[in-house]
Amino acid sequence: MFTMARKPQPQAGGGIVAPPVVVSGGQEWRAVGRTAVSILAALLVWALLAAVLGDPSHAPGPQQVLPELARGLLSGKMLPDLGATMLRVVSSFVLAMLAGTVLGIVLGLSRRVNDWFDPWLTIWNNIPALVLIVLCYLWIGLNETAAITAVALNKVPLVAVILREGVRARDPALSEMARVFGMGFVARHRHILIPQLMPHLIAAARAGLALIWKVVLVVEFLGRSNGIGFRIHLNFQMFDIAGVLAWAAAFVIVMLAVEWLILAPLSVRANRWRRE
Amino acid sequence: MIALDLQEKRFGSTVVLGALNLRVAGGEVLGIEGPSGSGKSTLLRILAGVDTRFRGEMQAPSRRAMVFQEPNLMPWRRVLDNIILPTGADEGTAEAWLARVGLAGYGAHWPGQLSLGQARRVGLARAFAARPDLLILDEPFVSLDAGRVEELLDLTAELIAETKPAVVLASHAPQELDRLATRRARLTGRPARLSEG
């Protein structure tokens, strides 16, 4: 059935075999089920390990961390810090995606520009996140601008590299087709270039989001007075391991929601033409 | 009508095409033959307006269309949009052209769902939907089985007779040249020159 859905065959009447929508829907639900079971299994392994070690203050199990997480979320105590972190993630994400995409497209289009700037990009990509953070705080000051700049700077080269590969991998025959038929500037970009870059944009967004929220926490740990990173810093000083894990878990949940509610549907939409 | 007075086309220090003159009037089909690597594709890209870096002069109509060696469809746009977006044809016209090439009802398909023969038909529909004054056919029917080629040749001949563009056809296949070309020329030598007859 599955191959039939991918390649509908014309029938005598001129119609085609309809894709079996029910089957693919069922497959989606099965995938969701597998994810749920997999997460439950991870929790179980964690609980078993904690039980074996038998030292809740050093190795808290889910039975210590999850109630703390629930209390923090339900009482609303965690929300201001979650919000502050989220705002930093979103601002630096948008900045880095815009700058990285433009840079990547320019480098991908021009061999000569790339020859000049490729070594810069390699060096930039290999500067440790911590160095960029400390330098931004020293140069700009212990403020929000420095925090967001530092995070964005960490991500730009990654996005640029991925987008550069995307631009290089584009099909020149299609650009030629567009020129023969006299397609305009906007149409050429909207229908020819961007669709070819879409998989790379989504890959850059995924990789970038994972990187960004980790760096945001370090930035907050070092020089902010709110956000998850700041709270983890406090818990670290009080040696509250369950607290550290609860704060981390809260943000992991937020990022999983972003992946499932925004990135995954976007990716499905962009790849529709491959699947039907 | 297209008129090309080429003095020279070079890539770096290699002269690929020598001096040549080429004129094709509306309704005429100039068949160009020549071995692989003889410069046919280079000449077609100049005529199509894709390659403008040559010495010489060209007067070509602004409405051009081309059928390529590969179908060159946008795989992420549905078949109907593959005709509408490059040509600016309205939906009804695009559907009519699809029907004309025997693909009525295929507008909502993705190109990846078509066979090679069907994709080539879409390429043909797209070219004619542009209502070109100059139509360039670059080995338009390679890698199809003989029966299919015969069918598409009939269709192409019919459409050319109806719409009367100036046509330049490059091909290896005697069958295609015999069926479509009203004049023939050979591209040979290094740098390549065009000899009619």
Automatic annotation (TrEMBL), chain A:
Keywords for this protein:
Cell membrane, Membrane, Transmembrane, Transmembrane helix, Transport
Q: What is the name of the protein in this document?
A: NitT/TauT family transport system permease protein
What are the subcellular locations of this protein? Answer: Cell membrane
The protein's organism comes out as Rhodobacter viridis
Q: Which residues cross the membrane?
A: 36-54, 86-109, 121-140, 146-163, 197-221, 241-266
Q: Does the keyword Transmembrane helix apply?
A: yes
User: How does the record classify its membrane topology?
Assistant: Multi-pass membrane protein
The organism sits in which domain of life? Bacteria
Carries keyword Lyase?
no
Q: Which Pfam families match?
A: BPD_transp_1 (PF00528)
GO annotations under biological process? transmembrane transport
- Residues in ABC transmembrane type-1 domain copies: 82-262
Q: Which family does it belong to?
A: Belongs to the binding-protein-dependent transport system permease family.
GO terms for cellular component: plasma membrane
UniProtKB/TrEMBL annotation, chain B:
- A Pfam family annotated for this chain is ABC_tran
InterPro entries of this UniProt entry?
AAA+_ATPase, ABC_transporter-like_ATP-bd, ABC_transporter-like_CS, ABC_transporter_ATP-bind, P-loop_NTPase
Q: Name one GO molecular function term.
A: ATP hydrolysis activity
Which residues are in the ABC transporter domain?
Answer: 1-196
The UniProt keywords, alphabetically, are: ATP-binding, Nucleotide-binding, Transport
Family designation: Belongs to the ABC transporter superfamily.
Can you name this protein?
Answer: NitT/TauT family transport system ATP-binding protein
| Species this chain originates from | Rhodobacter viridis
